[in-house]
Amino acid sequence: MLLVLLMSLLCCVPAAKACLQCDRSIRLLHEDFVLSAPSVNDQIEIQNICDYAYVTYRETSQERKGVIDPTTLYRVRTEYQSEFHRFLKTQHTGSVQFEAIQIMEKGRKILEKHLDIFIQDGLCPNKCGLLKRRVMDCFSCRYQIYVCPSPSGQQNCGDYPVQAEEGGQAVLNCFLPWHRILLEKTEYHYSWAPGVPGNKKLNESDFKALVVTDDSSVVLNQLHVAEQGTYRCSLQGRNGTVFYRVTFLLTVAPVPEPTLRPVVTLPSLPHGDNYSTFHPEDLLVPLIAMVTAMSLAVIIGLTVVLGMMMSQRRATEEPRRRTERKNTLNTV
Known about the structure:
The chain has helices at residues 2-15, 24-35, 40-62, 70-89, 96-122, 284-331, and strands at 67-68, 131-137, 143-148, 156-165, 170-173, 186-194, 208-213, 217-220, 229-237, 242-253. By secondary structure, the protein is of the alpha+beta class. Residues 149-243 form the Ig-like domain.
């Protein structure tokens, strides 16, 4: 009986793989759980519960495209493992089979929750353009290519006006987040059709290649009016497949020339008019002469005054000297 049980464990799980069992750690977790049952009958019952749970997991996956990406599978596995370990640490007081049904159903709800989010927002995030991505098939547990065509059926994702001034710069960036998950190796191809954008319908021959780069953006510096035009960015594979295309309508406004201020000319006076034009420089020479004359007069006046003071001083000192000489002679 034990040999039959072991054979069923080895054969049952691979035959009924679904998204949650595509991870090897989850399969081993379930196998250990079956073998931990207290009796052979309990092991058989729990194995049957696991088998039925795998069927429900498969049905849940099938209702949601039947595919999953590695990131979503990692989230499902992590959350389910956390719930399962919490279940194992709990003191079981009821039926082991009933509690096994509960934890397996918990796994189905976790898978359902994450698949709903992935299918709605993550499987085909391209609102336009062609997306080829790598996903896991929930039945074979093998990776495959999943194609997300453009909802509009075209790879052209619109026109965007860009305005700049002459001498300035413009940044053209055609990156979208879903470009990271493209399966193929891709490059950004930039091309340009000169002329005022929107004036005429352009053909493929009107575009001139600018640059092929791994970067999604280009910077146009020191712009001239002649550089305005229709710029196109295409995300292409190495085999020429166009996955995404966007157009930038670049308009370069010329810098206005500086305005020259007019020179105001005063009208000339009529002939015979008694009015004269006043020139301040005409007063400069008389003013200098007057200042010089006043300076000389002050100097002369000071000289005369100083001379008179010195004469008066000599007149007062002479009698005193005579008296001093007379007294000196008398003394001798």
